[in-house]
Amino acid sequence: MLGVRKRICSPREEESELRRGPWTLEEDTLLTHYITLHGEGRWNMLARGAGLKRTGKSCRLRWLNYLKPDIKRGNLTPQEQLLILELHSKWGNRWSKIAQHLPGRTDNEIKNYWRTKVQKEARQLNIEANSKRFLDAVRSYWMPRLIQKIEQASYSSSLTTLDSLADREVRSTPSHPPVHNSLPTLLCPPESRFTHYSNPGSENSFSVTSPYLLSTNSNTISQQPDEILENPSLLGDPVCNNLILSDTYNKEGSSYDMDGFNVASVGMGTHDNSPLECQVAEGNWVFDSMEDTLWNMDDMWVFRDLRETGI
DNA sequence: AAACGCTGCAACCGCTTGCGG
DNA sequence: CCCGCAAGCGGTTGCAGCGTT
Questions:
Q1: Which nucleotide's C1' atom has the smallest distance to the CA of A44?
Q2: In what residue span(s) does the Myb-like domain sit (predicted)?
Q3: What is the reported pLDDT for A208?
Q4: A253, pLDDT greater than 80
Q5: Which of A279, A271, A129, A165 lies closest to A219 in space, CA to CA?
Q6: pLDDT given for residue A279 in this prediction
Q7: Strand C bases, protein C-beta under 7 A
């Protein structure tokens, strides 16, 4: 499917017969072939050299957003979604900077994702996108949900591996992770004291991190001291089953002031002292296919209920 | 089956940044 | 320092495709 803008040519463009709109297969081939032979850069020259009646700008965009061989296609994984949320909270709409941390993904794709998925959900929740409320919701609700999703996926797959390897007589653990029946708090496998996710299909790996300690015991969430954030080696609670995540927010004076972030404010200020609850809708959502909606409508209703009841 | 509405995303626009002369 | 050009970046647009009525 190709989005095609209306062809509006200035007189000057008509004179030079510059083409606009969707790229043809022939143009793609010309561009790819030329870049294969001569490399990127000097886009205006490149456009002429390749025999394309396109602006250099247009060629650059087509190459970077579509033709470049290492571009990853398809839906964003939960890991990637989480990373986008993380990095956006850090840097705001610095799409190209965010894209640098998602190998194979373009700034355009990430920008589109943010606008079509994230901002849409904000609208449906009647929260102004990029408002503090929305950020609170993202950080304290949806990001943990994504983390859960990732953890559960990895937990399930590791059990599947165990299933195939272990002596089935010895194995007495359930074949699926424990799913709480009634609105559990954040569910983390014991091994998840510190998360490090590798990005599939890439040699690079990245840490998906968050400045909060999410306790599976106490329904509490607490921000880690800067000391710890600056030194990941300090992370990892050897005793309790805490998920400790690290990050350094707002180090570049970016869009969000997370310093004032108050977990309880997710309840929209009705109960100032209420603890954060990362509640899970009924059902085995963790086993759902990794469809790439940021969250589903059921999740949203739970969040909305929480908000309305002030929990 | 036709009309309509919604969504995803490719491509464009305009502004900013970087750099050489 | 200023100017002009090229490249980069973020915001916006508009259409194909799909689902719903």
A1: C6
A2: 15-67, 68-118
A3: 40
A4: no
A5: A279
A6: 33
A7: 6-17
